[in-house]
Design brief:
The structure is a homodimer.
Chain A lengths: L3 E7 L3 H12 L1 H8 L2 E8 L15 E3 L2 H5 L6 E4 L5 H12 L3 E4 L2 H17 L4 E2 L10 H7 L6 E7 L2 H12 L4 H10 L8 H4 L2 H15 L9 E2 L7 H9 L2 E12 L2 E12 L11 E8 L3 E8 L3 H21 L22 E11 L4 H11 L4 E8 L5 E8 L2 E2 H13 L3 E11 L5
Parallel strand pairs in A: 1-2, 1-4, 2-3, 4-5, 5-6, 8-10, 10-17
Antiparallel strand pairs in A: 7-9, 7-11, 9-10, 11-12, 13-15, 13-16, 13-17, 14-15
Helix pairs in contact in A: 1-12, 4-5, 5-10, 7-8
Amino acid sequence: MTKEINIGMLGFGTVGSGVATMIRENEQQLSQKLGAKVKIKKIAVRDLDKHRAADLNGSILTTDINEVLEDATIDVIVEVMGGIEGAHEAIEQALQSKKAVVTANKDLMALHGHKLLKLAGDNATDLYYEASVAGGIPIIRTLEDGLASDRISTIMGIVNGTTNYILTKMKEENWSYDEALKKAQELGFAESDPTSDVEGLDAARKMAILATLAFSMEVFLDDVEVRGMTSITTEDIELAEQFGYHVKMLGYAERDEDGVEVGVEPVFLKSSHPMASVRNEYNAVYVYGDAVGETMFYGPGAGSMPTATSVVSDVIAACRNLLLGVAGSRNIDYVNERKLKSQDQQKAQFFHRLLVKDEVGVFSELTSIYGRYGASLGSIIQRPGEKAGEAEVILITHPVSRKNHNGIIDELNQSSFVQKIISQYRVEGGEPR
Amino acid sequence: MTKEINIGMLGFGTVGSGVATMIRENEQQLSQKLGAKVKIKKIAVRDLDKHRAADLNGSILTTDINEVLEDATIDVIVEVMGGIEGAHEAIEQALQSKKAVVTANKDLMALHGHKLLKLAGDNATDLYYEASVAGGIPIIRTLEDGLASDRISTIMGIVNGTTNYILTKMKEENWSYDEALKKAQELGFAESDPTSDVEGLDAARKMAILATLAFSMEVFLDDVEVRGMTSITTEDIELAEQFGYHVKMLGYAERDEDGVEVGVEPVFLKSSHPMASVRNEYNAVYVYGDAVGETMFYGPGAGSMPTATSVVSDVIAACRNLLLGVAGSRNIDYVNERKLKSQDQQKAQFFHRLLVKDEVGVFSELTSIYGRYGASLGSIIQRPGEKAGEAEVILITHPVSRKNHNGIIDELNQSSFVQKIISQYRVEGGEPR
C-alpha cells in the first residue's frame, strides 16, 4: 500500500476547510476503501495570514494558484474558491493537464458545464460536480451509477431551498409572499437580490444538469421553460389545498417517444405525491425509472457541511477511477439524440381561476372555448365573486397540449365575459405514465 | 483492457434472469466503468429443461451447484436461489474460497448476516447484500459510503411494504385491519401467513442490519424491541390525525451518549415528518447525520426488477473492489463498542387513550399517576364515553423513560377508576435532538 494520491485545493473557506478536516480525520478509512493514501498536498488561498492558526497537517499553503495547478505530482484538484472567471480558467487548466477536478460551483457548472465535461472527456480525465446540484443529496452519483437499461421517463426536482421555504411558510403560516421572502432573507436562505431563486433560474440550471444525465442527452439552460413564482398568492395556495394539491416551485423533466420537455414553474402538485411533503428549505429529487419505479431522494440543498460531504464523496470517486485506470470513462457520449417536444407534443393538465361576468349563458360559452381546443374538464366550480355581477370560475382540465392551452388562454383574454384570468398553474402528480 | 471478471450465478428465476439481462445489455457500459469485461460464466439451476429457450449469451447452465462454486476462474458469486439452508452453505463455501458474494436473500442475512460478514472479512473478500433491505433503495451503499466523521444519530425505516400498505388503506379508505390485510394478500403483497410482516419481525431484521451499519456497532435481531400492529383500529388512526399524526409501522434506531435503542412498533408519527407521507407498499429510510442533517431515501421495497437492479449495482461494486485489490476492506471492525440503552435511558413521548369512570376527582387522580413518574403532559382531552358514567381520556406525554412509562401503565391497569387502556403508542417525529 505505497500508492499515494495527491490533492490540490483551490480555496480554503468554510467548505474547503470542512473538506480538509474530513479527509484528514478519515485517513485510515480512505486508505482501506481505495488501497492508496490520500493526501492534501497544496492549498491555494487569497490571504496567508488568515490561515496561520489552521491545522494544515503538512499541506502547503500558497497564494499562487499556479503553484497548485502546475504541480505535476497533484492528481486531483478540488475547486471550492467560488466565482466564475477565475474558477473557470483554473478548471480548464487542470483538465488540460489531465488532472481530475471536483467542483462545488453550481453557477460555473450551469454556465460552462457541458463544455467542461467535454474537455474532461477529451483529456481522458474526470470532472465531478455532485455538490453543485442539491448539496446534501447524492443524486448525480445515483443517476450516473444507474444502468442505461433502466430508462428514466420522469424527473421532478424541488431543487431551490429558498422558494420551497417561501411556499411552505405561505401555506403553513399564512404569510404573504413578501413576508416569507423577507424572513428567508433574514435567515440567510435568500440573497438580497432574490431574482435568480424566485424567477426559477437557479432551479432551471439544476434541471438542465439533471435532465442531461437522466436522459443521456444534451439539455441546455435555454431548453428549460421557466416561470417565476412572484405572483403566487395565499388564496391560490388555499384553493390548491381544497382541490387536493400543494403549490410547489417544481422542476420537471419528462421523456416519451416524442422527445423531452423540461420546465420550472409553480405547479399544483397532488398532495399524495411524495414530493408534496417536502417542506421548508429542503430539497428533493424524484426519479421514475422503468425498472425500479418511483424513487425519491430528500435532503438539505445547501449548507457548508452537506456540501463538504458531497465534495469528499466526489474526491473518493475521482481517486477510485484514477486507481482503476478508467478516468474519463464516465464522460461517455450522449446515448440519445437531442429531441425536444414541440408545444403540440407537450401535454399537461392545467388549473385556471377566472373572474367572469355573472350572466346567463356565460358558463356554457366558457366551456365551449375549452371544448374547441379539445380540453375536457376534470372539475369545474363556480362561486360568487367579490362584487355583485361577478363570478369566479375555478377549473382543472384533463391533459391538453401546451399549444392548445395557449389558444385557450388567448381566447379567454379576448372574450367579452372573462374579466380576468386570476391565476393559472400546471398540474402535476397523477400516476406516472 | 484484457482483464475479465467471471460471475457465477446460483438461481435463474425472475430476479436471476433480470440480473443476467441487465449485465448483458450493459456490457459496454460496464467495461467503461470498470476497465474490465464482466461475464456470466456459469449458472446453477434446478431444472435444465425450464431454461432451454433462455438467451444465455454463452453462459453454461448446470444443475450441479458445485460446478459453479468450485470453478477457480469464477470471481463473484450471485446468490438468487432463495431459501436458507442451501443458500447458507453455498455462500459459506464461496467466501471460504475467497470469492466475492452478492446476495438478495433477506431471511438468510437476518439469520446469519453477522457471521457471514465476519467470514468474508476473515477471507479478505466481500459480501454484498443491498437487495436484502428495501430492494429498490440504495441505502446500504449510502451508509457504507458515508464517512465515519458524519456521526449518525437517528435512523427511521418504513421497511415493510405490507404493513405500510395496510395502514395507508385503513387511513385513506377507512378499511378495517382485516379488510386491508385481505386486499394485500389478494394483491400478493402479504403472504398467506402474514405473521412475519404484521408482528414486525421482517422490519426488525432490516432495522438490525441498518443499525449495525449506521452506528458501526453489532446490533442483533434480539436487541430490537418489537410490537406488532394487529390491534390498530381505524379509530386510533382518526384520533392520530386529529392530533397531527400518522400511524406508521416504524423502525427506529437512535443513539446518544448513553447508547443505542432499536425498535419496531406502530407509532404516532408527526404528519409534517417526511416519513409520514410514505404511502402504500413503498419503503423509505430516514437518516439524521450530524454533518449532513436530514436525508431520506424513498422507493419500492420489493419487486423483481428493483431487486435485480440492486444486485447488479452490488456486482459492479464487488468487481471494482477486486480490481482495486481492496476486496474485504469494507468489512472493517465495528468502530463502536456495543452499548444498548437500559429502560431507564430509553426516552420517548407516548400517546394514551383510556376509558375511565366519569366521576368527580378522576381527572386529578389520573394526572397524579403521571406526575409521580415524572411524566408531564403535552395535551390531554376528555370526552364522553359510549356508555353513561364512562369517559375517554386521550393524552400525549412529554418525553419519559421506558421504565417510568411501564410504571405508569402498571398503575393504570391496577387503578380502580381506569376501566381499560384502549390503546397506547410511542410518539415520534419531533425535531431531531
